[in-house]
C-alpha cells in the first residue's frame, strides 16, 4: 500500500514569524548574513561561504557572466547556466574570473582608419562614447589614441573622416603601467582631471581602461565575494551526462563551485556523477546536488558526497512539473523536512551539509522564512531575472517594461539534461513556461532593499546571524482568513480617488 503523509504540504505564504525578544544590540547594522556554501566538519570552517544567502538560478534567462559579476559584488554567487556547450560555459567562467573590479576591457576598439560614421554607429550599439584606437583594432592591440565625443562635431565634419585625424594621439595621452592599482589609477585620474586612464604594457599594448565613475562605485561593495587572488567567485551548473568532458574545462577556467542541475535529484545518476568528480578531481572540488524534497532524498545525496543539497520540486515560478507530472511538494514543508534530516545527520556524523532552498520565493520575507526554517541560502530565478543584469531582453508592452523569463524545461530552453531519466537525448514534453516579469531596475538597489527587510525581521526575532535565527525563530501556520487580515483591509485606498 502506498505511503500517505499525515499532514498536507505547505508553502511559504502560509507561514509567519512570531517576534522574539530583541536586545538593544539587535539593530540591522549588527546583523551578519554570512552563511556556509559547502559542507564542513564540526569545529571547522567551510571551504566556501557566501556573504549573503542568495545564489542565482542555473538558467539561461538568469545566470550569465554579467549576472555573476553583479551578484558576487553583493556577496552572493551565480551558478552559470549549463544548457550551453562546455566550451561556452567555461568561457563565461573565464570572463568572471578575469574581471577586475574597476578595470574595464575595451569593448569598442577601432582602427586609425575607422570613420566618424562608423564610430557613431558603434556608439549607438555599445552606449559608450570613450573608445580606444588600436593598431589592429583589437581590445589589446598597440594603443594609438583615444577618441571621445568631445573630439568631433557631427554637424561640421564629414562622416568619412578617419579617426586618426581627430583622436587624441598616444603622445598626448596620460596613461599608466598595466600593474597600476585601482587606488593609484584613481589618484592619477584626479590629479590630471581625466575621465579615463588607459593602462598599457611595456609594448604599448592596451590592457585596461579605468574610469573615474567605477572607482566610486567600487567603494559601495563592501561584501564582495572574492577568492584569495581577489577575483570574483563564480559557480557553474553541470548535468549527469557530459560531466567527464565539461567539468575539466570548468575547473581549468577557474570555477569555484559546481552544482548538478536536475529537476529530480534522488537518483543513481547523481551518485555516479558525485563519485566520479570527487574521485577524479579530489574533495577540494565542490559539487552541490539536488533537487530533493524529503529526508530520504537528502540522506541519499549527503552520503553520496554532495557538498550542499538543493531542495524544491515544482515550486519555481515558471515550473509546471506538478501540473504535468503530478510530482512535487509544498516548498516550506519540503524544506523543513530536509533541514531536520540535515540537523540529525550533523549530530550523528559531525558533518554539516548546507541546504539551499530553490524556487518559489515570491516576497522578500519568504527569504527570512526559508532561513528560519533551516535553509542556509536560497536559489532565485524570477527574482534576479527582473534586473538589468539578467541576460534577457527588456521589452515594452502596453507602456510598461518587462524582462523575458523562461524555464529550463520550456521548449525555448530545451534543456533536456535537466529532466533526464536515461534513454533518449531529448525533451519529450514541456515542464516550464516562457514568460515576462515586471522589469525592476539594477540588481544592487533591489538586493539592498530585500536584505534590509531580512535584517530587520531577524532583529524582530532577536537574531544577529542566520544560525541564531534558526535556533530562536518561532513559526506559525496561518489560516486563510488571517492571510486576508495581513493585507490592508476594510479601507478604500486613496489612489482610487486621486486619479479622478
Ligand atoms: P523561481 O525563483 O521561483 O523563478 O524558481 C527558479 C527555479 O525553478 C530554478 O532554480 C529551478 O530549480 C526551477 N526551474 C527552472 N526551470 C524550470 C522549468 O522549466 N520547470 N524550473
Commentary on this structure:
With 500 residues, the protein is α/β, with parallel strands linked by helices. The chain folds into 2 domains: 12-101 and 222-486, TIM Barrel (Alpha-Beta Barrel); 116-219, CBS-domain (Roll). It is 32% helix and 18% strand. The radius of gyration is 25 Å and the shape is globular. Bound molecules: ribavirin monophosphate. Ribavirin monophosphate (RVP) binds at residues 57, 59, 312, 316-319, 321, 358-361, 379-383, 407-410, 431-432. Residues 57, 59, 312, 316-319, 321, 358-361, 379-383, 407-410, 431-432 line the site of ribavirin monophosphate. It catalyses: IMP + NAD(+) + H2O = XMP + NADH + H(+). Belongs to the IMPDH/GMPR family.
According to DSSP, the number of beta strands is 23
The count of helical stretches stands at: 16
- Class by alpha and beta content: alpha/beta
How much is the average pLDDT? 94
Radius of gyration: 25 Å
| Helicity, as a percent range | 25-40%
Q: What is the makeup of the main sheet?
A: 8 strands, parallel, barrel
Which CATH architecture of the largest domain would you pick? Alpha-Beta Barrel
Give the low-pLDDT segments.
none
State the end-to-end distance: 63 Å
By CATH, the topology of the largest domain is TIM Barrel
Q: What topology, given as strand order, has the largest sheet? A: 5-6-13-14-15-16-18-19
Please indicate the percent range of residues in DSSP E strands (runs of 2 or more): 15-25%
At the fourth CATH level, what is the homologous superfamily of the largest domain? Aldolase class I
Organism: Schwartzia succinivorans DSM 10502
Protein name: IMP dehydrogenase
InterPro entries: Aldolase_TIM, CBS_dom, CBS_dom_sf, IMP_DH, IMP_DH/GMP_Rdtase_CS, IMP_DH_GMPRt
GO molecular function, one term: metal ion binding
Amino acid at each position: 500500500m502506498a505511503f500517505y503523509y499525515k499532514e498536507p504540504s505547505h508553502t511559504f505564504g502560509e507561514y509567519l514569524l512570531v517576534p522574539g525578544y530583541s536586545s538593544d544590540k539587535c539593530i540591522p547594522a549588527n546583523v551578519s548574513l554570512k552563511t556556509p556554501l559547502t559542507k564542513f566538519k564540526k569545529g571547522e570552517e567551510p571551504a566556501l561561504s557566501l556573504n549573503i544567502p542568495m545564489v542565482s538560478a542555473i538558467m539561461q534567462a538568469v545566470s550569465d557572466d554579467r549576472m555573476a559579476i553583479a551578484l558576487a559584488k553583493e556577496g552572493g554567487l551565480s551558478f552559470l547556466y549549463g544548457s550551453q556547450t562546455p566550451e561556452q560555459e567555461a568561457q563565461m567562467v573565464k570572463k568572471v574570473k578575469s574581471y577586475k573590479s574597476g578595470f574595464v576591457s575595451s569593448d569598442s576598439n577601432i582602427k586609425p582608419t575607422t570613420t566618424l560614421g562608423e564610430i557613431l554607429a558603434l556608439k549607438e550599439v555599445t552606449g559608450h562614447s570613450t573608445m580606444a584606437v588600436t593598431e589592429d583594432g583589437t581590445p589589446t592591440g598597440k594603443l594609438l589614441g583615444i577618441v571621445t565625443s568631445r573630439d568631433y562635431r557631427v554637424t561640421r565634419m564629414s562622416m568619412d573622416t578617419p579617426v586618426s585625424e581627430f583622436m587624441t594621439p598616444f603622445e598626448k595621452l596620460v596613461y599608466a603601467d598595466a600593474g597600476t592599482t585601482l587606488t593609484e589609477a584613481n589618484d592619477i585620474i584626479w590629479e590630471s582631471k581625466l575621465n579615463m586612464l588607459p593602462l598599457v604594457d611595456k609594448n604599448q599594448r592596451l590592457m585596461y581602461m579605468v574610469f573615474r565613475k567605477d572607482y566610486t562605485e567600487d567603494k559601495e561593495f563592501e561584501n564582495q565575494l572574492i577568492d584569495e587572488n581577489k577575483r570574483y567567485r563564480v559557480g557553474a551548473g553541470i548535468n549527469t551526462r557530459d560531466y567527464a568532458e565539461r567539468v575539466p574545462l570548468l575547473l581549468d577556467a577557474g570555477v569555484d563551485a559546481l552544482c548538478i542541475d536536475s529537476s529530480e535529484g534522488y537518483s543513481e545518476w547523481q551518485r555516479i556523477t558525485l563519485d566520479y568528480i570527487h574521485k577524479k578531481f579530489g574533495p577540494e572540488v565542490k559539487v552541490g546536488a539536488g533537487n530533493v524534497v524529503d529526508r530520504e532524498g537528502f540522506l541519499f545525496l549527503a552520503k553520496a558526497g554532495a557538498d550542499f543539497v538543493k531542495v524544491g520540486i515544482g515550486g519555481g515560478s515558471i515550473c509546471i512539473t506538478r501540473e504535468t507530472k503530478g510530482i512535487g511538494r509544498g516548498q516550506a514543508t519540503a524544506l523543513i523536512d530536509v533541514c531536520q534530516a540535515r540537523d540529525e545527520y550533523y549530530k550523528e556524523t559531525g558533518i554539516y551539509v548546507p541546504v539551499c532552498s530553490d524556487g518559489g520565493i515570491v516576497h522578500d520575507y519568504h527569504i527570512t522564512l526559508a532561513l528560519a526554517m533551516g535553509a542556509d541560502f536560497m536559489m532565485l530565478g524570477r527574482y534576479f531575472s527582473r534586473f538589468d543584469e539578467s541576460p534577457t531582453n527588456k521589452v515594452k508592452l502596453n507602456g510598461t517594461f518587462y524582462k523575458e523569463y523562461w524555464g529550463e524545461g520550456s521548449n525555448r530552453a530545451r534543456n533536456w539534461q535537466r529532466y533526464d531519466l536515461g534513454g533518449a537525448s531529448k525533451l519529450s514534453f514541456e515542464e516550464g513556461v516562457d514568460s515576462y516579469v515586471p522589469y525592476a531596475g539594477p540588481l544592487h538597489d533591489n538586493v539592498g532593499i530585500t536584505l534590509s527587510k531580512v535584517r530587520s525581521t531577524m532583529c524582530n526575532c532577536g537574531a544577529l546571524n542566520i544560525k541564531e535565527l534558526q535556533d530562536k525563530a518561532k513559526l506559525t501556520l496561518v489560516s486563510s482568513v488571517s492571510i486576508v487580515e495581513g493585507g490592508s483591509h476594510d479601507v478604500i485606498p486613496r489612489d482610487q480617488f486621486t486619479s479622478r
